[in-house]
Amino acid sequence: MSKPMVFRGFNLQSEPYKVTFEEGLFNSPLKDIILYELARSDNAVAVYRRYKSREFTLGGHIKTDSSDSLEAAIDALKAALLLQSGELAVGWAGGTRYFEAECANLNINRRNTELDHSGWSAQFVMPVPFSTDGVTRDFITAVSGHTLATLQVGVNNIGTYLAYPFITLVITALEPNTSNVTFTFTNPATSENISITDEFADGDTITLDTLNKQIFRGSELLAGVGNFPAWQPGSGLLELSDTATSRTISLSATYIARYL
User: What are the residues whose beta carbons fall under 8 Å from the beta carbon of 149, sequence distance 6 or more?
Assistant: First the structure.
C-alpha cells in the first residue's frame, strides 16, 4: 500500500495519479560544520553548525482512458505543482508528516505512442530542512500560583530536531509594579536565555514565540536581551527567574515537534 501524499491539497495518490518512487524525501539534511584550528595543537573546535536546505524527487505515472483525459490530467498536475510552494503531507507512523517545499521542476515522460498514460517526475526544494507532524503539544506541565523567584520545570521534546516552544507567562500579582522588573527564560543545558525588562502590571500576559523570535505583552511587541533558547530532543529543563520582590505567576508552553 502506497503512502498518502498530498501537496497543497492536491492528492498525488488519487486516480489518475500514482507516486511510485521518491528519492531524498526521508533523508536527513546535511550539517554544515565550521571548524577553528587551535594554535599549537593537533585539534580543532567546532564553532558553528547549521543544517542546510535539501532537495527531493517524487515520480510516478498518470493513467487515464483517453488522450484528451491524459492531457487534461497533465495540465492539472502542472497547475498543482509548478510555481507553487506549500506543505507536502505524507503518511508516517500512523499520522502525517508535513514538508514545507517548492516544486522546482516537473518532467513529463510521455512517448508518442502513449495515448492514455505517461510517467512524471518532480524535483522539490526544502529551504527549511525539517518536517513537522502538525500536532501542538504541551512542552511543560502547566504551573499556576507560583510564588518563588526561580521556577524550573521539566520539558520533553519528542522530535528529532530542536524544539522552539510558545511560552505563556501570566502575572497574577507582582511587586513592584511601578518600576522595572526583569524576567529571564533559560535553557540550563545550553545557557541560552532571553530577558525582558519593563514595568509589568497585575494581569499582564507575556508570550514568547521562540521560533519567530518575538515577545509580546498582549499585542504589544517587547524587546528582549539575549538569545532565544531552543531545546534538544529528549528531556530537559525550562527555567524562569525574575527580579521582583514578590510575585504570583502562571506558566505554560506548547510546541510542534520537528523532525530531521
Answer: 241, 242, 243, 244, 247
